[in-house]
């Protein structure tokens, strides 16, 4: 069954999922935040088939999330580097991480942690807040749809 493109959807969530909505793409972006930049590093770390990795990297480059650059060590290899657009996905990755920590691990189960470089403290919880500083939830927000 062929996947339907959501690139023309009026919903920003749908358009976003059209670009980064499969788990491989999000894991590639996650690894890029962790400093992975070479095809072989992505392939080894994720354990994914080379053809799938190649397709996902091509898509992320085409959408301006990653860019191809010469290897920083001067070798003949190339690297995949997050662009400003790619780095703007950081809150998405953090939100997924925090949701997973809250809902997919037993209370004492070991898992990786995201910490601040200065002091090594866990990063604060991400919470959408309104203009008055109140926590925003589905109960006090709404989507205004295009007619």
Describe the structure.
This is Transcriptional regulator. A hairpin with a 7-residue loop joins strand 1 (66-70) and strand 2. This protein has helices spanning 12-20, 23-33, 39-46, 50-62, 84-87, 90-103; strands spanning 66-70, 78-82. 40% of the residues lie in helices and 7% in strands. It has a domain at 12-103: Winged helix-like DNA-binding domain superfamily/Winged helix DNA-binding domain (Arc Repressor Mutant, subunit A), CATH 1.10.10. The model has no long low-confidence stretch (mean pLDDT 94). The chain is mostly helical and 147 residues long.
Strand content: 5-15%
Largest sheet strand order: 1-2
- In the CATH scheme, the class of the domain at 12-103 would be Mainly Alpha
Mean pLDDT: 94
Annotated CATH topology of the domain at 12-103: Arc Repressor Mutant, subunit A
Tell me which CATH architecture of the domain at 12-103 applies here.
Answer: Orthogonal Bundle
Q: Tally of extended strands?
A: 2
H-E order = HHHHEEHH
- State the CATH superfamily name of the domain at 12-103: Winged helix-like DNA-binding domain superfamily/Winged helix DNA-binding domain
Distance between the termini: 30 Å
- The stretches of 5 or more residues where confidence is low (pLDDT under 50) are none
What is the structural class?
Answer: mainly alpha
Shape: globular
- Tell me the radius of gyration: 18 Å
Helix content: 40-55%
How many helices? 6
Domain HTH hxlR-type: 11-108
Keywords: DNA-binding, Transcription, Transcription regulation
InterPro entries: HTH_HxlR (IPR002577), WH-like_DNA-bd_sf (IPR036388), WH_DNA-bd_sf (IPR036390)
Pfam families: HxlR
């Amino acid at each position: 069954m062929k996947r339907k493109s959501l690139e023309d959807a009026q919903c920003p969530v749908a358009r976003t999922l059209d670009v980064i909505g499969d788990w491989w793409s999000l894991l590639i972006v996650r690894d890029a935040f962790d400093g992975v930049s070479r095809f072989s590093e992505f392939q080894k770390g994720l354990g994914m088939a080379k053809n799938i990795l190649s397709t996902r990297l091509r898509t992320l480059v085409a959408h301006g999330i990653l860019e191809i650059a010469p290897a920083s060590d001067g070798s003949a290899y190339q690297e995949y580097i997050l662009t400003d657009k790619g780095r703007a996905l950081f809150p998405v990755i953090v939100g997924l991480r925090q949701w997973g920590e809250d809902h997919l691990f037993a209370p004492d189960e070991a898992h990786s942690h995201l910490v601040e470089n200065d002091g090594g403290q866990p990063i604060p919880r991400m919470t959408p807040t309104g203009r008055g500083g109140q926590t925003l939830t589905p109960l006090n927000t709404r989507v205004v749809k295009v007619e």
